[in-house]
């Protein structure tokens, strides 16, 4: 269902020949209205790809007519020529669709290499001709890079729907580290309300997926509202639906992380503040030694404590508790329950840290570190 | 030569049976004076092992009679009982040597497990009986954990000597991530002068080795001065010698990093400030994607830019230059010289980043990320 689950949208995905493999590599998502309200969140990396710079500009007024997306090339670190290419993609899309030039551009693939613009522009024309209200799946497939599966999600409220697609292999992938997400809804929601719902949802979902600590130059999350349902949703219910779709897609990214053998949920509770909980969670999620240990099915709580100790969060080292898959292996900062009680044979791992310093909490999702990760990311040349 | 290169010191290393393998695991370094001046730098991890807490207390007044070190157990995250064990090691050493209880304690090995104190105390007695002015090598050998070689260095000035030993496998090792360093000198230097020379040397050497971003609970660097040469050295010359020995030992740690196939020097120049240069250097050195790429001999400058972009350092993304092994593969934030000109077949790699925002610079040393690293750190159970 993807981006065409909500009424008022058409989409398509085609093989433009950007990828040598001939796999689908160009997608369009068009908002047929009546509303063109939109919101966007971009990577906080200060090195930003040309399509991010372009899309940030074009979404500034809270309206989008369409989105053009390509895999097979990130158009990042490509200088002024790359800026021209991103603009040309938007212009070509607007012309092919006979819409205003409010077209966002999303690219993913190799960094530092220009796109084959002749193929891209021909592909845009083909994709425009193939637009369909059933094209959501095709679009989701065309934005895959190292993703093993395409990723879509849908949620509904009374009379309205939120749907979406995502690409990204848990941010474990190489120059392909990019996460691209397009959400659509037929609810009648103003741009400022879209913006607030999207930002809050991203903050506690995509922003808390930290597969390998590496941040892309191209990450983009877009939310387009057609208003085609004619329903103005309850703000809380709408925010919940957007959050639900984002969480669903985020967990699909983690589940599809390249080279990973475990999905790890790091839950930090008892923190003095939410920022403290997030900082501690990230520090644990980024600790290579711990990620290797969990890969080896070793409930190595000492590495959890080491990671916590590098943060400036509020805690007393002698009062930290750590549970791994429900077994409290560390109590008061020292050995607790016997570690051989921990069953790490499954794919899902939960590490729970109680800082015993307050009531705030946060969850970070990550993966283990494997030889396959190293192989994928060293064999790949970008 | 190690810690007994300087006059006034004796050392020993013995097999106390802490390690199941029977390899040497306990070392003593004794300052026979006439001076007992000393300085110390400890891990900034807020989760600190019991021996670190003890040694911090005992070195507070700038004097040390001796150091007792063990491998085979870190005595970290061991609660109040571990504190008692660290103190007992110091007391036993003082008694065996008939010295004041100004004895620093350094431990390395598994986290969260108590030391076999009966073996440790018996080992201290044996080590005390075997003290020798030629014992520096034995001591350096006894503090090895996953180190493939023991590490020593020496520098000299007019009439005085600085020598030292280190253990640590580039901080790439697992619960064994600890770096322990003991430096000795026969120069006649006051405790405050030792402290200032040591802090400055550590700041630009050991603190800039960032093999895997993981920081130990046990890291300790000690500098003991016997004054046995009777020479008061020129402060600048002495500081330079201490820096030289620290740099030599730090590079030996990088060269011996577990599972690594490359030694990577990240040089950041043209920074607006030294902290900016260090921040950018660390961000690059900790980027798993880049470390995989360099392992695969791929001069992936896009990943360098991605890493720089996550920092708050002063730079213009469109004015960054990156050279890899001397080839400027990125100029003005976009593709520069052809990447196939870069020869990455050797073990040594230099990544030079010019931020073109000022005159400050810094160097960070790291390693590549390899399947062997993952294997070592997932197979090992701590």
From TrEMBL, chains A, B:
<feature type="binding site">
    <location>
        <position position="382"/>
    </location>
    <ligand>
        <name>substrate</name>
    </ligand>
</feature>
<keyword id="KW-0808">Transferase</keyword>
<feature type="binding site">
    <location>
        <position position="145"/>
    </location>
    <ligand>
        <name>substrate</name>
    </ligand>
</feature>
<keyword id="KW-0963">Cytoplasm</keyword>
<dbReference type="InterPro" id="IPR042195">
    <property type="entry name" value="ArgJ_beta_C"/>
</dbReference>
<dbReference type="Pfam" id="PF01960">
    <property type="entry name" value="ArgJ"/>
</dbReference>
<feature type="binding site">
    <location>
        <position position="377"/>
    </location>
    <ligand>
        <name>substrate</name>
    </ligand>
</feature>
<feature type="binding site">
    <location>
        <position position="167"/>
    </location>
    <ligand>
        <name>substrate</name>
    </ligand>
</feature>
<dbReference type="InterPro" id="IPR002813">
    <property type="entry name" value="Arg_biosynth_ArgJ"/>
</dbReference>
<dbReference type="InterPro" id="IPR016117">
    <property type="entry name" value="ArgJ-like_dom_sf"/>
</dbReference>
<feature type="binding site">
    <location>
        <position position="178"/>
    </location>
    <ligand>
        <name>substrate</name>
    </ligand>
</feature>
<keyword id="KW-0055">Arginine biosynthesis</keyword>
<comment type="function">
    <text>Catalyzes two activities which are involved in the cyclic version of arginine biosynthesis: the synthesis of N-acetylglutamate from glutamate and acetyl-CoA as the acetyl donor, and of ornithine by transacetylation between N(2)-acetylornithine and glutamate.</text>
</comment>
<comment type="subunit">
    <text>Heterotetramer of two alpha and two beta chains.</text>
</comment>
<dbReference type="GO" id="GO:0006592">
    <property type="term" value="P:ornithine biosynthetic process"/>
</dbReference>
<comment type="similarity">
    <text>Belongs to the ArgJ family.</text>
</comment>
<feature type="site" description="Involved in the stabilization of negative charge on the oxyanion by the formation of the oxyanion hole">
    <location>
        <position position="109"/>
    </location>
</feature>
<keyword id="KW-0012">Acyltransferase</keyword>
<keyword id="KW-0028">Amino-acid biosynthesis</keyword>
<protein>
    <recommendedName>
        <fullName>Arginine biosynthesis bifunctional protein ArgJ</fullName>
        <ecNumber>2.3.1.35</ecNumber>
        <ecNumber>2.3.1.1</ecNumber>
    </recommendedName>
</protein>
<comment type="pathway">
    <text>Amino-acid biosynthesis; L-arginine biosynthesis; N(2)-acetyl-L-ornithine from L-glutamate: step 1/4.</text>
</comment>
<feature type="site" description="Involved in the stabilization of negative charge on the oxyanion by the formation of the oxyanion hole">
    <location>
        <position position="108"/>
    </location>
</feature>
<keyword id="KW-0511">Multifunctional enzyme</keyword>
<dbReference type="GO" id="GO:0006526">
    <property type="term" value="P:L-arginine biosynthetic process"/>
</dbReference>
<feature type="binding site">
    <location>
        <position position="258"/>
    </location>
    <ligand>
        <name>substrate</name>
    </ligand>
</feature>
<feature type="active site" description="Nucleophile">
    <location>
        <position position="178"/>
    </location>
</feature>
<dbReference type="GO" id="GO:0005737">
    <property type="term" value="C:cytoplasm"/>
</dbReference>
<feature type="site" description="Cleavage; by autolysis">
    <location>
        <begin position="177"/>
        <end position="178"/>
    </location>
</feature>
<keyword id="KW-0068">Autocatalytic cleavage</keyword>
<dbReference type="GO" id="GO:0004358">
    <property type="term" value="F:L-glutamate N-acetyltransferase activity, acting on acetyl-L-ornithine as donor"/>
</dbReference>
<dbReference type="GO" id="GO:0004042">
    <property type="term" value="F:L-glutamate N-acetyltransferase activity"/>
</dbReference>
<comment type="pathway">
    <text>Amino-acid biosynthesis; L-arginine biosynthesis; L-ornithine and N-acetyl-L-glutamate from L-glutamate and N(2)-acetyl-L-ornithine (cyclic): step 1/1.</text>
</comment>
């Amino acid at each position: 269902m993807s981006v065409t689950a909500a009424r008022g949208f058409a989409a398509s995905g085609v093989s433009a020949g950007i990828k040598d493999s001939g796999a689908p590599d160009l997608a369009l998502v068009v908002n047929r209205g009546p509303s063109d309200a939109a919101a966007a969140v971009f990577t906080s990396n200060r090195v930003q790809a040309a399509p991010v710079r372009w899309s940030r500009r074009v979404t500034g007024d809270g309206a989008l007519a369409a989105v053009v997306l390509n895999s097979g090339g990130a158009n990042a670190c490509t200088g002024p020529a790359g800026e021209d290419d991103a603009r040309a993609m938007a212009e070509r899309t607007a012309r092919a669709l006979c819409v205003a030039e409010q077209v966002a551009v999303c690219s993913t693939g190799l960094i530092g290499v220009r796109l084959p613009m002749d193929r891209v522009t021909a592909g845009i024309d083909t994709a425009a001709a193939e637009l369909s209200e059933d094209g959501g799946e095709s679009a989701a497939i065309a934005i895959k890079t190292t993703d093993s599966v395409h990723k879509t999600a849908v949620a509904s409220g009374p009379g309205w729907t939120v749907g979406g697609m995502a690409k990204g292999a848990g941010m474990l992938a190489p120059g392909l580290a990019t996460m691209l997400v397009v959400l659509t809804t037929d609810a009648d929601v103003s741009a400022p309300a879209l913006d607030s719902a999207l930002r809050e949802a991203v903050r506690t979902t995509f922003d808390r997926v930290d597969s390998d600590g590496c941040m892309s130059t191209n990450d983009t999350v877009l939310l387009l509202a057609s208003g085609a349902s004619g329903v103005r949703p309850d703000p809380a219910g709408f925010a919940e639906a957007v959050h639900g779709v984002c969480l669903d897609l985020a967990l699909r990214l983690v589940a599809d992380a390249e080279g990973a053998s475990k999905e790890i949920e790091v839950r930090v509770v008892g923190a003095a503040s939410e920022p403290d909980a997030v900082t501690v969670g990230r520090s644990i999620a980024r600790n290579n030694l711990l990620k290797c240990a969990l890969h080896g099915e070793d409930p190595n709580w000492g590495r959890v404590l080491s990671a916590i100790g590098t943060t400036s969060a509020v805690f007393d080292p002698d009062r930290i508790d750590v549970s791994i898959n429900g077994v409290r292996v560390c109590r008061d900062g020292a050995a607790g329950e016997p570690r051989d009680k921990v069953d790490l044979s499954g794919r899902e791992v939960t590490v729970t840290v109680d800082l015993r310093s307050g009531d705030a909490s946060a969850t970070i999702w990550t993966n283990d570190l494997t030889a396959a990760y190293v192989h994928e990311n060293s064999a790949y040349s970008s």
